[in-house]
User: Which sequence fits this backbone?
């Protein structure tokens, strides 16, 4: 849990944003206890039955805003994904995509990859989240499990620098091929140029504000 | 002078420049180059309600080799920049460029690492059209002003002289940062 004050990183009397009095608490939801409610118990039970290493593979189960998130250790990601897809009582046939998240403050867990799964057979959704250190940003590719994540993994690589081992062609998809850095990381500068007006210069946004 | 006297009476003689200008401006074919939301307004300008067909330019050519005018409608990303330049290079001369909207003219609201801060970094621009996005009327106004320019365009040595004059005026102009006051 952390607290932030104001907005746009402006402090002191120079704050003309109107948000100087704003205080927000950020809460990271912790591990949930059974019963999870809804179909979440059933999904967890079935996964535990079909995947005996459940305890070693799943760091924690989080129910937040009525959504189920399984935090998976990356060594077991591929096996968990295959089990979720193949087991008859689970049948998560679709992966809606891969998202990257950057938490620069979480030591050795800076990068997260998030997979949204959908079971068309049972009309259920599950989210898998994998944390990995910035110093070793490797993940097994899930292209062979769900072919549709091919471009999503390329995008996550492009934007966050997560390297998906075993991907058939892991190249940049949005930025130019010779681009340096990964733009969606929190420490990536926004860039921009100072804008000249008549008799005045306005510095680029990244020097006027910090985005959080 | 000579030529006029030898022509049969009744032939209206006009300068070659005016004739060429009239031909060029009356069938200006734009290249299809929609990049973002401005492209929606550009399409609206081409469709029935605003009807660019009135000015002989309803055919948006998919091939740059058949186009005279590039309407850069939207923000140009760094990745798109070489593509845009290649399409411009593939257009046959004479060719013109309209930077449509704030983003194409100056980068607009996207002052960041990914967007080219004005398409004039890549291609020479004839008309800058402000607006976010500009309405079809504004696009048509820009097109008509460009038509006037094209109609008055000089040829041969006259053209070279005009280019030199424009260049000299641009070099002598005061940079924006040195200008003070609202209207000067």
Assistant:
């Amino acid at each position: 849990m952390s607290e932030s004050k104001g907005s746009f990183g402006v402090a002191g009397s120079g704050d003309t944003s109107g948000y100087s009095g704003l205080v927000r608490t950020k809460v990271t939801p912790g591990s949930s206890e059974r019963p999870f409610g809804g179909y979440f118990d059933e999904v967890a039970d079935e996964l535990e039955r079909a995947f005996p290493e459940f305890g070693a593979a799943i760091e924690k189960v989080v129910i937040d805003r009525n959504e189920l998130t399984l935090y998976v250790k990356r060594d077991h990601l591929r096996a968990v994904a295959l089990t979720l897809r193949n087991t008859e009582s689970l049948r998560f046939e679709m992966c809606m995509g891969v998202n990257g998240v950057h938490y620069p403050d979480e030591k050795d867990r800076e990068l997260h990859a998030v997979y949204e799964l959908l079971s068309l057979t049972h009309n259920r959704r599950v989210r898998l989240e994998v944390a990995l250190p910035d110093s070793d940003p490797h993940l097994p590719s899930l292209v062979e499990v769900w072919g549709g994540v091919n471009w999503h993994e390329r995008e996550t690589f492009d934007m966050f620098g997560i390297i998906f081992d075993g991907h058939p062609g892991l190249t940049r998809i949005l930025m130019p091929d010779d681009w340096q850095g990964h733009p969606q990381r929190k420490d990536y500068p926004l860039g921009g140029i100072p804008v000249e007006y008549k008799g005045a210069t306005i510095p680029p946004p990244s020097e006027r504000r910090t985005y959080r | 002078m000579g030529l006029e006297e030898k022509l049969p009476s009744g032939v209206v003689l006009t300068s070659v420049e005016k004739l060429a200008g009239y031909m060029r401006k009356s069938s200006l074919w734009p290249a299809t180059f929609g990049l973002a939301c401005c492209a929606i307004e550009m399409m609206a300008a081409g469709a029935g309600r605003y009807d660019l067909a009135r000015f002989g330019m309803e055919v948006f050519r998919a091939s740059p080799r058949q186009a005279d005018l590039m309407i850069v409608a939207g923000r140009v990303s760094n990745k798109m920049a070489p593509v845009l330049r290649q399409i411009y290079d593939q257009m046959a001369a004479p060719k013109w460029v309209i930077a449509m909207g704030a983003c194409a003219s100056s980068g607009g609201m996207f002052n960041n690492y990914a967007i080219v801060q004005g398409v004039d970094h890549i291609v020479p621009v004839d008309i800058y059209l402000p607006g976010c996005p500009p309405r079809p009327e504004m696009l048509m106004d820009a097109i008509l002003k460009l038509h006037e320019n094209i109609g008055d365009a000089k040829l041969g040595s006259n053209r070279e002289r005009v280019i030199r004059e424009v260049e000299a005026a641009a070099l002598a102009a005061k940079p924006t940062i040195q200008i003070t006051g609202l209207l000067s």
Summary: The mean pLDDT of chain B is 86.
